[in-house]
Each structure stands twice: as structure tokens, then as C-alpha cells.
Amino acid sequence: MFKKNLILFFSYTGTCSRVAFLLGRECGADVVGVKSRGFGFFKPLVHKWLFKRGKPIVLLPSGLDLGKYDNVFIGGPVWDGLPAPALLDLVSQLDLKAKKVLLFLVSSGDFGISVFKLKDLVKERGAKILGLMSFFSSDTNFMVLEKARNHLFVLE
Ligand SMILES: Cc1cc2nc3c(=O)[nH]c(=O)nc-3n(C[C@H](O)[C@H](O)[C@H](O)COP(=O)(O)O)c2cc1C
Known about the structure:
By secondary structure, the chain is an alpha/beta fold. 35% of the residues lie in helices and 27% in strands. It is built from 5 helices and 8 strands. The strands form 2 sheets. Strands 1, 2, 5, 6, 7 and 8 form a 6-stranded mixed β-sheet that branches. Strands 3-4 form a two-stranded antiparallel ribbon. Helix 1 crosses helix 5. The longest helix has 13 residues, at 15-27. It starts with a strand and ends with a helix. Flavin mononucleotide (FMN) is lined by residues 11-17, 44, 77-81, 106-110, 112, 137. Residues 11-17, 44, 77-81, 106-110, 112, 137 line the site of flavin mononucleotide.
């Protein structure tokens, strides 16, 4: 039997990874982090440079088949008031036509216009958005799950 839910995320310093695995445990999902170009301290600079030039930033896992899943979660951090370039690049590489998608963003306090940007891009890709969860990097696991439960009930 296959799982119905997939969680795809990008994380630089680990918070989105923590959130993704908590959500995955809560709703029984496959959890997949995407690899990205650049390394260490230079990653944000490399990502911004690539994004400006329209070059790929993230590497989709080989054999990724969204068709196997009913619901796809996509998440990542806020950078400079926007979804991190790697998150935007991830979305732009996915075929989300008619897919049911739950989004999540993590920031240290200022979401800027990231929520609207991410929502618009995911809609452009043809997805049906089930919801968008926003977390602070300071949220404890308990707080993450409390916030998430207000959204996870929409899953069939
Ligand atoms: C380059 C960069 C830019 C950031 N810009 C913002 C921002 O505009 N607003 C904010 O609240 N947090 C900002 N942050 C903080 C991250 O959104 C926050 O630490 C998030 O939890 C990181 O997720 P991660 O640990 O999965 O990478 C920024 C972090 C980085 C590295």
C-alpha cells in the first residue's frame, strides 16, 4: 500500500527539516528534502546568484513520482521577505496540475510577502491549494503540531 501524502521541503539551517518530519509523523507522509547547489556559508549567495540568472538551484530526487500521492506538502524558509529562491525553484520544477497542495513557510518573524508569492506561483503551476501553514523558527515541536492540526484536518 502506498502512502497518500508526500512532504517535499528545502531547508538550509534545519528548521524546515524539523517541521517537515514533525508533519510527516503526524499525518503519515513520505518526507523528502531536496538537495541544492552551493555549500555552507556561501549557499544563500550562490542561490541568489543562480535565481537572478534563472538557473536551477535544487536537484529533484531521482524517480520522484508525484502521481503516487493524493496530497503534496511543499515547504521551506523565508529569505528576505520572500520564499527562499530554492523553494521557488523547487515549485517551478514540479508538475502540480490538479494536485492538492499544502504549503508551509518558516521564518524568524517577518514573512514579508512570501505567503502571497508562494501561493501565486503554486497556483500558476495548476495546483489546488488546501492551505498554507506558517511557523516561526522559534516554535517548539508542540507549537508546530498545534498550528499544523488546524490545517491537517483538511486531508482526506
Ligand atoms: C539568507 C537568509 C534570509 C532570511 N530572511 C528572513 C526574512 O526576511 N524574514 C525572516 O523572518 N527570517 C529570515 N531568515 C530566517 C529564516 O527564515 C529562518 O531562520 C528559517 O527558520 C530558516 O529555515 P531553515 O533552518 O530550514 O533553513 C533568513 C535566513 C537566511 C539564511
